[in-house]
Specification:
Distance between the termini: 14 Å
Helix content: 25-40%
CATH superfamily of the largest domain: ATP-grasp fold, B domain
Largest sheet: 5 strands, antiparallel
Number of helices: 8
CATH topology of the largest domain: D-amino Acid Aminotransferase, Chain A, domain 1
Shape: globular
Order of helices and strands: EHEEHEHHEHEEHEEEEEEHEEH
CATH architecture of the largest domain: 2-Layer Sandwich
Amino acid sequence: MSRLGIFVDRKTLSSAEQLNALIRCRDAAEEMGHGAEFIFPVDIRKIPQMDGLFIRARTDPMNVTFVASRMAAFAEIPVIDDPASIQICSDKVNMYSRLMKAGVEIPRTLFISHRDLTPARAREVFEKLGSPLVVKEPSTSFSLRVEKVQEPAEFLQVARRYFKMSDWIVAQEYVESTYDWRVGVLGGRFLYACKYIIPSQTFKIQASVNGHVVYCGVESVSPEMIPPEVRDLGVRAGRAIGKGLYGVDIKEGKCGPCVIEVNDNPSLESGEDNAYPHVYREIVHTLLET
């Protein structure tokens, strides 16, 4: 019997939805004849004793999840998310560069250095990308440090604030939509799909509005209802990043679908898997049986 370690922290268990998702993962492993154990940061030394590690806490190269991932990789234990995927997806300059190199469709995108921030450069960015455009700080997650700007002066203001955290920022064409596709990809294969319904008060799937956090709605979509070009694009984007588990966010713009970003450690607790009951079995199989 193999043993699956599920790496969690207190925040992972902060809601009933997250806890239920973790229990479904554990139950899937046990139904397949494996053992499963929740591992908290204080028990990180247990990781080399596992046969596979599934990280279900926020991933970032600067926190303990990256240490857990590196420990598993060093011990040659299959791990989701692997260290390379964490590093790539936590740096949007790196992530978009890989997508571009692989020929994956993304909105028109520019990388701006702090040395290159001038009023003239700001005007040039708008000439190339149009108005409005989206500005992103490269280490952003959960839609934080992502802002829509309307004109060069506003762009300069946001850019100066983001340059306090990074030497680079991402400027991107704004693609209007009422929802994002989320395509789950595992090991370069399609896993699931859903729609993230964007709140009417914002252009992001999560945002603070008048002091309150608003979240997107989640609608699981059966395989036959997914446009083939969306499914294909999601899989190509996942393969451009690596062989792990990814949530690929896609918008359908005027020129066709385009990838907004690729997330390592995608959420599964909000009903993303409703139309795909075998998601956790696929993950367990990938970690323990391949």
